[in-house]
Amino acid sequence: PKALISAIVTCGTENNYECLNEVLKSEKKRLNKAYQALSATYNDANKILQLDNEQRAWLDKRNAECGKLVIETPPNEAPKITACILKALTQRANQLENALSTITPTTNKKPDTTTNATEQWFESTAKPVLIVRDKPDVTGKKLGTVPTGGKIKVLETKVKQDSISGQKGNWVKVEWLEGSGYVFDVFLKPL
């Protein structure tokens, strides 16, 4: 992003470590959000461990290629290091977001939102994630999560009425991995 590169130049001429670090903040936040969302989609400890290992390997490679931006970084090297880190952060965030988009199914079909409609696609509005449970109740065992903006297929609506944190809604049956589970529909938006 040109604005961020411009900010690096400005910060570098001021020899300001905090300023350079601030430039990286938005991409770090985007990368962390994508990483957490992707990790939340995995219900398998091995996949989570693999993602953690990939992230550590990426960080080691980034540090080897770019160096580290620390207070002691020489002023003449700090802008170059910051630009390299920014590029790496952007590429990794894009990579994680792309991986996440391949996990959440999409459809072009507009759902029928009439009462008790079946097999319709919805989008999660829950922040940070929508919890999928094994039974239609907050005491149900957590099967996994759907990130904000993730797509989910509803198999059966209005399974059980409930009120959670003052919000009235219904538990709905959803397709989850190779089986099914339940989510609270207050956090679903029709596609």
Short description:
With 191 residues, the protein is of the alpha+beta class. It is built from four helices and seven strands; from the N terminus they run ααααβββββββ.
How would you portray this structure in words?
It is a single chain. The chain starts with a helix and ends with a strand. The chain is an alpha+beta fold and 191 residues long. It is 45% helix and 26% strand. The protein contains 4 helices and 7 strands; from the N terminus they run ααααβββββββ. A hairpin with a 2-residue loop joins strand 4 and strand 5. The strands form 2 sheets. It has a 5-stranded antiparallel sheet, with no helix packed on it. A two-stranded antiparallel ribbon has the order 2-3.
Overall average residue pLDDT: 81
Q: What is the terminal-to-terminal distance?
A: 31 Å
Number of strands: 7
Shape call: elongated
Order of helices and strands: HHHHEEEEEEE
List the helices and strands and how they pair.
Elements lengths: L1 H13 L2 H25 L3 H22 L11 H26 L16 E5 L4 E5 L8 E6 L3 E14 L2 E10 L2 E6 L3 E3 L1
Helix pairs in contact: 1-2, 1-4, 2-4, 3-4
Key phrases:
191 residues; alpha+beta; 5-stranded antiparallel sheet; 7 strands; elongated
